[in-house]
Amino acid sequence: MRWRLEGARSMLNVRAAFQSDHLCGFQDSYSVCQTNEGYPHRELLGDYKPLTVAC
């Protein structure tokens, strides 16, 4: 398998978090970061509840 520098760095970060027992914190912070990047205005939905459709 060949690694590019970016992919190798990412895997080393995950491995370091796993080895130091900080994997849960790492996953939580990664999830928050990805959510903020993908859905920057999600707080505008606030109390939105989708309508239920009767069949």
Question: Which features characterize this protein?
Answer:
single chain; 55 residues; mainly alpha; 2 helices; 56% helix; elongated
N/C terminus separation: 52 Å
Average pLDDT: 86
The helix/strand order is HH
Helix content: 55-70%
Low-confidence stretches: none
Structural class: mainly alpha
Number of helices: 2
Number of strands: 0
The value of Rg in angstroms is 18 Å
Shape: elongated
Measured by DSSP, the beta-strand proportion falls in under 5%
Biggest sheet, in brief? none
Report on this model:
With 55 residues, this protein is mainly alpha-helical. It has two helices and no strands. It is elongated.
Please write out the topology.
Elements: H1 5-19, H2 23-38
In short:
By secondary structure, this protein is an all-alpha fold. Helix content is 56%, strand content 0%.
